[in-house]
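User: Please run a holo structure prediction.
Assistant: Happy to. Please share the sequence and the ligand.
User: Here you go; the ligand is zinc ion.
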Amino acid sequence: MFSLPICSAADCGRWAIRDRDVCRDHLDDPGGYDREIARQLADSETITDLNITSAELQDLDLSGKIIERCILSHVNLRGVSLANSRIRLVFFDFSVLTDCSFKGAKLHSVVFAGSQIDGCDFSGSDLLRCNFCGAQCQETLFDESDLYASRFIAARLSRVGFKDCNLKQVRFEHAQISEADFRYSNTEDAFFEKKAQTL
Ligand SMILES: [Zn+2]
């Protein structure tokens, strides 16, 4: 990845966020910071090498952007469009994503582990080697997507569409799946529940 400065607050030890010498917890005005970073993201065609851990962004159009090597862990995104974007090596772990669009986006090695994904649309996208392990995902569409070698291990998937997807090498072991639509997808090439090991 890239080297990150450490927060200047005494004994903190967390990484400092973009354009500040402190981490999110030590910001004086987190709301003001979010507005500043939203403008900056919207104005950049290419977004690389930044850490905006725990930022809260709403109703933002980031469609068509190139986003690489970024840390968006614990972010809260609502109504953010990343449609047709190209996203590579980005961490969205433990994020809360509500009503966000990744339609037609090309994602490679993107981490959504431990996230809450609600009402989002990933349809028509490439999601190659992405990590949704332990994610809670509901009312979300992955229809007509290439999910090659992505992982949904121990995820909770409820009312989720996987219609007409490429599921080659996709791992769903220990996932709780309810009301999912896998029609026209090659489920035989994916890995589902294995019997729990008896110790
Ligand atoms: Zn700090």
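The two ends are 39 Å apart (CA to CA).
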